[in-house]
Design goal:
- It comes from Rhodopseudomonas pseudopalustris.
- This is MaoC like domain-containing protein.
- It is a single chain.
- The protein is α+β, with helices and mostly antiparallel strands.
- The protein has one domain: Thiol Ester Dehydrase, Chain A (Roll), CATH 3.10.129.10.
- It has seven helices and twelve strands.
- Strands 1, 2, 3, 4, 5, 6, 7, 8, 9, 10, 11 and 12 form a twelve-stranded mixed β-sheet that branches.
- The longest helix has 15 residues.
């Protein structure tokens, strides 16, 4: 198994990431699995400007909304470190085959804004199924001696890989998402604004043209360019800021693209496990996004 440790003293450079993605991937080897990489971003900070972008997307900057957005902020602004790892030349599968599937974002203490921190990402588990591989990436935010935030992002690589096996415990969001009744009265309705696409791509480090260019997206079989999932989640959190559950954990299930220019409907309900919500593109029977806010860790 390949071991690689890399430290960044500044935000990983997007052009360098792209060069890594163009390098031929070594291919999946069941004996080796995914590399034991640990990538560290020193002096990582959640900037006030980045938090302001999320607040504008949410349409609110009150304390409750900001508290929820702080669960999302490290996932947004630290995502480029995960992207850097998935684009490394020694990574066995190419980035364009990776689909972000689920997120589990956990808050364990006070998350400080504009505070010099360390962000660490590594692959912790994977599961080989008959139609693809699920990969769990663990991220940790270290602020001084504390780890106030961590996340597990589950990616999916379509394809047939052998043999079928698992490595490591599945600690991310459950494979089964909550069910929100589509007949519930809408909590909110809005149109997905397509402005400032490049600005949000700069926050995440994800410059996939599927999120930027309508013409490119249509040529690849999609109806239009689709928003980064984190961008849509910020909007949802603005509408459910009055939910009762403390913002200690946010779980997300990404079901499909949310296209710019489309009307969407948000519905929410209380369950024994927390405040569940789901977002539908108008005209679709299946939600594009499902989430759960809870106090459980």
């Amino acid at each position: 198994m390949t071991t690689h440790h890399k430290t960044f003293l500044a935000p990983p450079f997007v052009a360098t990431m792209a060069l890594g993605a163009l390098w031929p991937s070594p291919g999946w080897n069941a004996k080796h699995g995914f590399p034991e990489f640990s990538f560290i971003w020193r002096d990582y900070r959640i900037s006030k400007d980045a938090l302001g972008v999320l607040q504008r997307l949410a349409g609110r900057d009150d304390d409750t909304t900001t508290d929820r957005l702080l669960l999302l902020a490290p996932h947004v602004t630290g995502f480029r470190l995960t992207m850097t790892m998935l684009m490394h030349p020694q990574w066995p599968l190419p980035i364009w085959r990776a689909l972000q599937l689920r997120n589990r974002l956990i808050r364990r203490g006070e998350i400080k804004v504009a505070y010099p921190s360390d962000l660490i990402v590594r692959a912790i588990a994977w599961r080989v199924h008959d139609k693809g591989i699920e990969l769990d990436i663990h991220a940790q935010l270290l602020q001084g001696d504390d780890c106030p935030w961590e996340s597990i992002t589950t990616f999916y690589y379509r394809g047939r890989f052998q043999p079928l096996f698992s490595r490591g415990p599945a600690e991310g969001a459950s494979a089964m998402s909550p069910v929100v009744d589509p007949t519930l009265a809408p909590m909110a309705r809005w149109t997905i604004d397509g402005g400032r696409r490049l600005r949000f791509a700069g926050l995440t480090g994800d410059y996939n043209p599927l999120h930027l260019l309508d013409a490119y997206a249509r040529r690849t079989g999609f109806a239009a360019a689709s928003a980064h999932p984190q961008r849509i989640v910020a909007q949802c959190l603005g509408h459910i800021a009055d939910a009762d559950a403390p913002a200690q954990q946010l779980e997300l299930w990404l079901k499909g693209p949310v296209y710019f220019g489309r009307d969407v409907t948000l519905r929410a309900c209380r369950s024994p496990h927390g405040d569940d919500f789901a977002l539908w593109l108008d005209g679709d029977e299946r939600p594009a996004l499902v989430g759960r806010l809870s106090s459980a860790i």
